[in-house]
Specification:
The structure holds two protein chains of two kinds.
Chain A (H helix, E strand, L loop, with lengths): L2 H15 L21 H19 L8 H4 L9 H14 L1
Helix pairs in contact in A: 1-2, 1-4
Chain B lengths: L11 E5 L4 H12 L3 E6 L5 E3 L2 E5 L5 H15 L4 E4 L14 H29 L2 E6 L3 H4 L5 H21 L4 E7 L13 H10 L8 H12 L10 E3 L5
Parallel strand pairs in B: 1-2, 1-5, 2-4, 5-6, 6-7, 7-8
Antiparallel strand pairs in B: 3-4
Helix pairs in contact in B: 1-7, 2-3, 3-5
Classes of the chains: A mainly alpha, B alpha/beta.
């Protein structure tokens, strides 16, 4: 999966899981004071992404693992960062 | 199914530590009540029949635990109840407790249950329904001497479960704990008889719990009607 594919997947998962919300841009903050999502929506979104990766690619990933949480910049801060993180994790899977 | 026994028809229930003792009793109890029950334990021989399945899973292995939960969910299309029963007691004076024993107790009695709960809840949230029941022990409130590692690991599980109860409430998932007093299982076989008799004497209800006693308490939290019970600890033997 390349970065564009990852961004496409994230957009699809967002639309399916949170259809009532305006889809964020790639650089829209998902965390912090300016976050476009409620924290509970972000939790749902990350879990939905794990489900989608398992269903579509057959890969079992726990995205919120030690690697993600130990970084100085969270891979969950926006869709762009999350797409990069997905590509990285899938290349290691 | 015996007449009058039911209440879980069509439900899918996961039980860890299912090969013997409380876990094996819970498997039979919920099967008799109409649930499809998937049990796991390190030593289990994989099998399946019309009432459920058995799986060889070491719950301290995160990848294996997640794969087991997902496999059952994908095959059955739902997950209603997770019962984290797998656990082990370590009897030792604090002065004779190695660091490795502390880590092992936490890993099995707390971390494994928290990870299984996390993974089950990710699936339960889709149906906005779920029951997570964790087994704790009266050693937590009674601060039983010789059970430092065991009681501390279960105390961690109690707090974890109660926090989870709050975080998972928006998803319709309840999280509760059942804390048996001594039950005649392998877990207490190594405890000297005089010590066990002294412990029983400290209980308000002065006898060991039966497997039925424990099963009933677990069932209370597992039932669909228990939708407004969450973050609770139910100790047996009259302990509070």
């Amino acid at each position: 999966m390349n970065r564009d594919d990852a961004l496409k997947l994230l957009a699809e998962v967002f639309q399916e899981g949170l259809p009532d919300l305006l889809a964020p841009e790639a650089d829209t903050p998902l965390l912090g004071p300016d976050a476009a999502l409620e924290s509970i929506d972000l939790v749902n979104f990350v879990a939905d992404v794990e489900d989608a990766i398992q269903a579509r690619l057959g890969v079992a990933l726990v995205l919120a693992d030690e690697r993600a949480l130990s970084r100085s910049k969270s891979p969950f801060r926006d869709l762009s960062a999350l797409a990069d993180y997905l590509v990285e994790r899938l290349s290691d899977a | 199914m015996p007449e009058g026994v039911g209440g879980f028809e069509g439900q899918v229930i996961l039980i860890t530590g299912a090969s013997k003792g409380i876990g094996a009793h819970l498997v039979e109890r919920f099967r008799a009540r109409g649930a499809w029950v998937a049990g796991c334990a390190r030593s289990m021989t994989p099998s399946e029949d019309e009432g459920g399945s058995s799986h060889a899973v070491d719950v301290t292995d995160e990848v294996a635990t997640r794969a087991w939960i997902r496999e059952v969910y994908q095959r059955k299309g739902r997950l209603d109840v997770l019962i984290n029963n797998a656990g082990a007691a370590q009897m030792n004076h604090c002065l004779l407790t190695p660091r490795a024993t502390l880590h092992a107790a936490l890993d099995l009695n707390y971390v494994a249950a928290a990870v299984a709960s996390r993974e089950a809840a990710k699936l339960m949230r889709k149906a906005r329904y779920g029951r997570i029941i964790n087994l704790t022990t009266i050693a937590v409130p009674m601060l039983i001497e010789g059970e430092m590692a065991y009681a501390a690991s279960k105390a961690a599980l109690e707090v974890s479960t109660r926090v989870m109860a709050r975080e998972l409430a928006p998803f319709g998932v309840t999280c509760n704990l059942v804390g048996p007093c001594p039950v005649d299982t392998d877990l207490i076989r190594g405890v000297p008889r005089p010590k066990m008799e002294a412990l029983i004497e400290r209980l308000p209800l002065k006898r060991m719990a039966s497997l039925e006693d424990v099963g009933y308490a677990v069932e209370v939290f597992a039932r669909p009607e228990a939708a407004h019970l969450s973050g609770q600890v139910l100790y047996l033997g009259g302990v509070s």
